[in-house]
Design goal:
single chain; 265 residues; TIM Barrel; 2 domains; eight-stranded parallel beta barrel; binds 3-methyl-2-oxobutanoic acid; binds sodium ion; magnesium ion binding; 3-methyl-2-oxobutanoate hydroxymethyltransferase activity; transferase; EC 2.1.2.11; 3-methyl-2-oxobutanoate hydroxymethyltransferase
């Protein structure tokens, strides 16, 4: 395999090749995603929702993110592995942010980290970059700030917030980030941002005029089924498929159909 690097992603933007990214939080899923030639795997703090059942991304800890990330790193032979730096591990000051980023890189073997926010966290972003750790930004709907927003609706529909987002994207590029995720913002604004910076813009609910797309893998496989935002395309209905399989197993055990002679020693 030719390993995808942060440089490869920037080159893809230059060549007009769209970047594919999905989340994964564990070894088995990451193996499937990596073998299917995904460009980048995000060990998202959405693990807090998807894996642990929390309502928000806020409760997941740095240790838990490192556990998920190290499992994914062991599976990924080709994809770039990017890890979310979790809420509470980088906001206090830039030294704490660097310490957290170093722990992720050292203890998981991941290739880059992702942070939420713009000008508010610029010292932390600079410090992490100075240590040689590649940083992906994340603007628009930033779930770690959900209690500030109050809802998960589309962000930056008003001029003031749109302007701040554009300024933040420029700032993250100037600081040296290698890419930016834009979540749930108008397609027109995302297009403007993608055209105004030379680093790749990876969208989720940000339309098609950006440099790549990311989705939560459990959502696109239809394993989660109480989440129906417009931006989500479901490629499977795994929730139903898996439910049927488990029910069948329960029935087979109860009815003594399983195991049969061939399945016995
Ligand atoms: O945690 C996550 O899954 C994310 C993506 C939705 C971008 O940050
Ligand atoms: Na995230």
């Amino acid at each position: 395999y030719k390993r995808i690097t942060v440089k490869s992603l920037v080159e893809m933007k230059q060549n007009g090749e769209k970047i594919s990214m999905l989340t994964a939080y564990d070894y088995s899923m990451a193996k499937i995603v990596d073998a299917a030639n995904i460009d980048a795997i995000l060990v998202g703090d959405s693990a807090s929702n998807v894996m642990a059942g929390h309502e928000t991304t806020l409760p997941i800890t740095l240790d838990q993110m490192i556990y998920h990330a190290s499992s994914v790193v062991r599976a990924a032979k080709r994809a770039l592995v990017v890890v979310d730096i979790p809420f509470g591990s980088y906001q206090s000051d830039s030294k704490e942010a660097l310490r957290s980023a170093i722990r992720i890189m050292k203890e998981s073997g991941a290739h880059a980290i992702k942070v939420e926010g713009g000008s508010e966290i610029k010292e932390s972003v600079s410090r992490i970059l100075q240590a040689g750790i590649p940083v992906m930004g994340h603007l628009g709907l930033t779930p770690q700030s959900i209690y500030k927003f109050g809802t998960y609706t589309v962000r930056a529909k008003e001029e003031e917030e749109a302007q701040k987002l554009k300024d933040d994207a420029k700032l993250l590029e100037e600081l040296g980030c290698f890419a930016i995720v834009l979540e749930k913002i108008p397609a027109k604004l995302a297009k403007e941002v993608a055209e105004s910076v030379s680093i790749p813009i990876i969208g989720i609910g940000a339309g098609g005029h950006v440099d790549g797309q990311v989705l939560v893998v459990h959502d696109m496989l239809g394993m989660t089924h109480e989440f129906h935002p417009r931006f989500l395309r479901r490629y499977l209905d795994l929730y139903d498929e898996m439910s049927k399989a488990v029910s069948q197993y329960v029935n087979d055990v109860k009815s003594k159909d399983f195991p049969n002679e061939e399945e016995s020693y």
